[in-house]
Structures are given as structure tokens and as C-alpha cells.
Amino acid sequence: MTCSAVSDRSVVALVPKQTSSYNIPASASISRTSISRYDSTFRYTGSPDSLRSRAPMITPDLESGVKVWHLVKNHDHGDQKEGDRGSKMVSEIYLTRLLATKGTLQKFVDDLFETLFSTVHRGSALPLAIKYMFDFLDEQADKHGIHDTDVRHTWKSNCLPLRFWVNVIKNPQFVFDIHKGSITDACLSVVAQTFMDSCSTSEHRLGKDSPSNKLLYAKDIPSYKSWVERYYADIAKLPAISDQDMNAYLAEQSRLHAIDFNMLSALNEIYSYVSKYSEEIIGALEQDEQARRQRLAYKVEQLIGAMSMES
User: Fold this and answer.
1) Mean pLDDT of 180-198
2) What is the mean pLDDT of the chain?
3) pLDDT interval class at 113 (50, 70, 90)
4) Distance separating alpha carbons of residues 131 and 142, to the nearest angstrom
5) Which residues contact 53 (CB under 8 A, 6 or more apart)?
6) 8 Å CB contact between 190 and 216
7) E strand intervals along the chain
8) Which of 118-125's residues contact partners 24+ apart within 8 Å by CB, and which partners?
9) Residue-wise pLDDT tens digits, 196-254
10) pLDDT at residue 258 in the model
11) pLDDT band at 52; cut points 50, 70, 90
């Protein structure tokens, strides 16, 4: 048996016997068509990654009896336990590279989280809408006797970080004119998952079998969680926003972005929601003292009636 050096990115095959369509015995049970197909498989001239992604860890050829072995299990064949050990081996090999990449990106991730979870280090004043919305949530919690801080924390997280910022982090193409490849998408998914874990109030218990993307930022998440708690506390300490100031702010934002959005389309979306839940909305407006003073329930009924007649 002779040995030779195997260069990087080589494709290695383990076969029972070196045969080809040229020296196969006439009495062999393996058909020439099957061997030819086998030979053509390993004459593949594309990248090894492409070949690896097309085949599972073990692909038996039922006709020829040949088994093709790969070092990475195809995720499409997750039910094949034979590849679990090989997949774990490759994960450990890439763990060092993951840690190095994480170290390179650490400053950028920290800067992003500090900007999003800060009322000071953000380059601009905190939008009035955030303070107004968070105060509204606190008022509703007091009104319904909800004093659990975790509930209030979760409400605020669901309204802003998890509803808005996670989408921006995960899908930068929503904001920037860029192409997001599969590798970029995988990296951003790790950052987005870390962002979501930072907003959670539950403890994350990790073990040796936890996914690598969870382990990467396991030591950083407690610090990020403290940033989120500080952010919510700092907003609560800011002066309250009156309804007049909020209306003026919204009017100014509408003026600045008058040509950026289709107002009629936005109003139609709002009307679709109002008409769908008209009974619940009108009932809530009739029970609210301020809404009764402004006769909002009657105005909503008029609006729905007018739109129904036009349609």
C-alpha cells in the first residue's frame, strides 16, 4: 500500500476496491453503468463545498454497493444518526475560528447594543414616541394592578427591541441597498439571537450540548441584560410627554416625511384594522373618560359608516 500527501481542500473517498469501467471483471455483479456514474461523481470539478452540500454523510449506492463518506453531514438528512459523530467533530474544529471571528466583531456588537440600549450614547435625542409608549405601558400596568417588573419588562421588549430592532439586525436589506448572502445571514442570526436573549428576563442555562451560537455570547449576555434594564429605568426617569407635545411631534414627523410614504395606503391599513375590531374599539372608547370627552366612539362609528357606504 502506498501513501501520498493529501493537499488542502481535497475530496477523499473510501471505497472497498479500486475498480473502474475499464478493468471491471465481466463476471462482477456491479453494472458498468453504476461504476461509470460513480467515476463521474469523483471527477466533479466544482468546489469541494458544493460537492459536500449535495450528499449526506453516508450515501449507499443500492445498485453497486459503494458507500460514499463525507466529513460533514448534510442537514437535509438529520435523521441519520451515523453522521452525528462526524458533524460534532467538524463543529469542534470550527469552534476556534468562531471564537476568533467573535473577537473581531465584539467591538461592533458592543457598540450596536450600547447605542440601542442607551438614552445618552446614541448620537441623537431619544425619540419622544419611545418615552410616550413606555409611559403608556406603565400606566396600563398600574391600571390593571400588574406590579410584576418582569411583565412590564417583557411588554417593553416586545414593543420595541423584539418587534423592530431584531428585524433590522436580521434583515439589513430592509434599510440598506445591499445583498445579504447565506453566510451573512447566518452571522446576523447569531447577533439577533443574542439581542433577543439580552431582552429576556429568564435565565439561560447552557450545557455542553448547547448550540455554538448560544455558547459564543453566553458570558456577554448578563452584561447586555444589565444594559437593557438600565435603558428602561433611564427612560422611566425622563420627564413625561404631554399629549400636546406628542401631537406636535407626530405632526412634525408627518411634515418631514410627507413625500416618503403613501398616506392613503397607510390610512387604508388602519381602517382595515379598525373595521375588523370595530366593536372592541368602540367599546373601549366608550369606557375611557378622555375618549368620551372627545366623542371618539361616535366619530369612529361615523367613519366606519361613511366608508361602508362608499365601498
Assistant:
1) 92
2) 79
3) very high
4) 17
5) 74
6) yes
7) 58-60, 67-69
8) 118/227, 118/231, 118/234, 119/231, 119/234, 119/235, 119/238, 120/234
9) 999 999 887 777 777 777 788 888 999 999 999 999 999 999 999 999 999 999 999 88
10) 83
11) very low
Backbone dihedral angles phi then psi of residue 269, each to the nearest 5 degrees: -65, -40
As a whole number of angstroms, the distance between CA 225 and CA 200 comes to 8
Q: What residue type is assigned to position 169 of the chain?
A: I
DSSP 180-243: --HHHHHHHHHHHHHHHHHH--S-----TTS-HHHHHTTTTHHHHHHHHHHHHHHHHHSPPPPH
Answer yes or no: is pLDDT of 21 > 70.
no
Q: How far is the CA of 64 from the CAs of 27, 79, 188, in angstroms?
A: 14, 24, 44
- Radius of gyration of the CA atoms of the chain, in A: 30
Give the separation between CA 212 and CA 102, rounded to whole angstroms.
12
pLDDT tens digits, 162-175:
999 999 999 999 98
Report, in this order, helix, strand and coil percent for the chain, each rounded to 5: 65, 0, 35
Nearest 5 degrees, angle CA 113-CA 116-CA 118? 100
State the Cα–Cα distance between residues 191 and 170, nearest whole angstrom. 8
Q: Going by C-beta distance under 8 Å and a sequence separation of 6 or more, which residues neighbour residue 183? A: none
Amino acid at 47: S
Residue for cell digits 445583498?
Answer: 179
Residue recorded with cell 416618503: 260
Residues 6+ apart with CB under 8 A from 32: 21, 24
| Amino acid code (one letter) for 258 | A
Read off the pLDDT of residues 63-112 as tens digits, 9 standing for 90 and up.
Answer: 555 555 555 545 544 455 555 555 555 566 777 888 888 899 999 999 99
| CA angle in degrees (0–180, nearest 5) for 200-139-149 | 30
Maximum alpha-carbon separation in the chain: 98
